[in-house]
Amino acid sequence: MALRRQRAPEVKRAIAAATATVPLGPGSAWSSWKYGNRDWQIEAWRLYDIVGELRFLAGWIGDSVSQARLYVTEINDSGEESGEVTDAKISHLAAVPLGSGSQRDDNLRLMGIGLAVCGESWIVGEGGGTDDPENWFVVSPGQIRRTGADISVNRPMQVGGGVLTLTDGADLLMRAWRPHPNAIEQSDSPTRSAIPPLREIELLTKREFAELESRLTGAGVWFLPEGIDFPRGEGDPEGTTGFMALLQRAAAANIQDQSRASAMVPIMATVPDHLVEHLDKFKPTTFWSDLSDQIIPLKEKAIQRVGSAFEIPLELLVGLGESNHWSAWAVGEEGIKRIKPYLATIADTLTRGFLRPALERAGVQDPERYAYAFDVAPLAVRPNRLTEALELSDRFMLTDEETVKSGAFTPGQMPDEAERLKMLLFRAVAKDPTLLSDPGVRAAIGITAPVAPAPVAEQPAIPAPPPPPVPDNAPPAEPPPGSAAAERLRFALVRSQVLRAMELAGGRLTTPGERRQRWATVARYDLHSRVGPITPDRADKELVGAWSQLPDVAAAMDLPADDLRRFLHGYCTELLTRGLAHSDDLLSYGLAALMAGAPR
Fold it and tell me: pTM score, two decimals?
């Protein structure tokens, strides 16, 4: 009996997002859809433009979405993602939608902001009927309109500008939205429920401006006995009419020029003489109200309500405050959880609207087995996650690829087999320098100069006659070239240059606080091994100025300064880029190779 292949199940997702590819031809259900912003969306975008807290939240969501990496994953029989596909015929489709480089980042950012503010975002693939659309761009509902049977969108200036009339079969139009629970076809967003507290923030901000302007009109009114008259301008009448004229002129002048000193001086008025004995009961009358003291607490409560509507940690809006280093990272992890629904919406939209039709055109069987997904590793990495991954890797409990991912790196940045062999040999040589006597080892780690042979045990020689006595005032004799004393002197000079260079690099790689507390017992020339490997470019920067005394050392060793500098710089660079501590044995063998190859 023939077995029929079972069709891979569709990925089951909760109703937290909805996606649709809009047919551009006549006769579809979308032909009667009302394009444009709804009333609440118009209000949401208005508040986005004037309330900084909403702009910050929406921008944080958009920026976070733009940092995630899009890839193609395969769906297993249980409907779960089984990992990134390796088939180049399929995996290359991750580089197509939404453009590339900064264009893709900006489109993802706009989608994140649109979903956060108005609850929906529209993707346009100009020329999307092929696997390589000419232009991808993202628009809000207000940028789409219908004229008769034609659907047109405002094309951004980055891709040509103007108005694009979409063509059926040539262009793609995809809608991604967060459905309202009571009307699935309508969009919903955190901003929708946050409109009341956002309006409250707007009103309180207006009140703050009103309070400030009222204070700038003057410092109030101070009532004085009638016997003292306040100054008035020429032509001003006496009594209440003149006082009002003065008050209006002072207020207008102070608002026009808020730096005037007169704004800080109260206006003088008079009271009858018989009230002089009660003058202590008269206090200046100001132009602001008691509500001034309540504006900030009211605004803080409104901001908290906005944060609750977005279901994000309040620390994102009010700052980390007294949060320590570890709780700050915990906020980041919680924030990523809030970003994932937005990424799932975008991935599902691109999967239905572009990926599966492209796979069908390419002749891939069961295109439903593939979907877009986002890697959130670039968004944040816990500070101790890499350390834990390295420990698990040392115990053979974690693969090399997963260890690399834990540090927010990509598998493409892993060393190939030749580089890995070189790293292993270098570490082995650091522990056992005698391995350098093997020509194959030297070739593998890039040492081309011959290594000086190990010294042969000398036969006992006939004792020489004693040297003549040396006068007390005679200068010390230099060790003869090639003698053990000369070699020790050369090594001491070279070693001092290396330690000086590594001390300089260690000081630049660490902070004074780290050197006082965390690594108080570590020598400065060994600090780089605690920090860990750095890139070759950074190693060059950390060694700037390390070889200022090298010409004198090279002259004392009778070596070309450039050759000695290349050797020492290469040695120190190897230590920095591999995170290895200095080894006297390894330096000695390297120096012997350098001296053996030096011209005589």
Answer: 0.54
